[in-house]
Design goal:
The protein has two domains: 147 residues, 2,3-Dihydroxybiphenyl 1,2-Dioxygenase, domain 1, CATH 3.10.180.10; 124 residues, Signal recognition particle alu RNA binding heterodimer, srp9/1 (2-Layer Sandwich), CATH 3.30.720. The chain contains eight helices and 16 strands. The strands form two sheets. It has an eight-stranded mixed beta sheet. It has an eight-stranded mixed beta sheet with strand order 6-7-8-5-9-12-11-10, covered by helices on one side. The N terminus is likely disordered.
Length: 301
């Protein structure tokens, strides 16, 4: 896999699975958000292309920043599709800013909640963009932030607060910032979460419950990549997040709520970006055999 140096300052990175248009999506998102830029590109080599069925030398991943926040986009083929169970909640500082974002993100998209004034917001809208990714835009007067929002539906209804407590117990520098519950007569079971904000390793996330019959749930199309410094850290996150969930492969797992995570040692990125391409290829071959990453085996390869 041909790749470049990867910025790993952000511990938890949203990872977006596209069919074969990741580059188009990255360029589109960069054109929508301020302080944004493209990052590093990795390409399929013979090993990864054979495993995935993708063309050799085609783009595998591309990292990018939106308003300074790191994301990674993947060309993975038509395997997983985005759902609104994970959307990206954008707070906007000015009305001009939110109007411009809505105008761009809604082109050829699908509106879930009309862009207008609500009792809870001066201006708000929920839209699925032309690539299928969901965005919630909210005019608050605060500086722009982009935060992942998890919506707990179906078998997960009523578990948003439980999940928040679980996630914040795993990561250092984490806290529950606020949780608002439904009261009796508000259209949801009393005690379900209307809106919650929490941080994991200093990065903010949001969550909510919805008992409506949506017909969708979490999928690996949006996962969260966690960079780890040691094998102990890899083991810790892997063991905790697979409790009640399932191991997948190549560092991927699904937790007990169906949310997908990737637990990746930083040394893996260094090994596959080393100048010696034959050594890097052997590391990739060894990684393809793994579910949980084994740093010692990767280094031996």
């Amino acid at each position: 896999m041909e790749t470049q140096t990867v910025n790993m300052k952000q511990k938890i990175v949203p990872f977006l699975w596209f069919d074969e248009n990741a580059e188009d999506a990255v360029n589109f998102y960069i054109s929508c958000f301020k302080n944004s830029k493209a990052g590093n590109v990795s390409r399929y080599d013979e090993v990864s292309a054979k495993a995935s069925g993708r063309p050799v030398d085609s783009v595998l991943t591309e990292s990018f920043q939106l308003n300074g926040q790191e994301f990674i986009a993947l060309n993975g083929g038509p395997v997983f599709k985005f759902t609104p169970c994970i959307s990206f909640f954008v707070t906007c500082e000015t009305e001009e800013e939110i109007d411009e974002l809505w105008e761009k993100l809604s082109v050829d998209g699908k509106t879930f909640m009309e862009f207008k004034s609500y009792p809870f917001s001066k201006k708000y809208g929920w839209v699925e963009d032309k690539f299928g990714l969901s965005w919630q835009l909210n005019f608050t007067g605060d500086k722009q932030q982009i935060n992942p929002l998890m919506m707990f539906t179906g078998k997960n209804v009523g578990k948003a607060e439980e999940a928040i407590n679980f996630y914040t117990s795993l990561f250092e520098k984490s806290e529950i910032i606020n949780v608002v519950h439904y009261a009796e007569g508000q259209g949801e079971p009393e005690g379900n979460v209307v809106h919650a904000r929490f941080s994991l390793n200093g990065e903010e996330f949001l969550a909510m419950d919805s008992s409506l019959e949506h017909g969708f749930n979490f999928t690996p199309a949006v996962s969260f990549l966690v960079y780890c410094e040691t094998q102990e850290e890899v083991d810790y996150f892997w063991d905790k997040l697979t409790e009640g969930g399932k191991e997948v492969e190549c560092g991927w797992l699904e937790d007990k709520y169906g949310v997908s995570w990737q637990i990746v040692p930083t040394v893996f990125m260094k090994l596959i970006t080393q100048p010696d391409k034959e050594k890097a290829k052997r590391v990739m071959q060894e990684m393809m055999k793994m579910k949980k990453f084994d740093i010692k085996k990767l280094e031996e390869a």
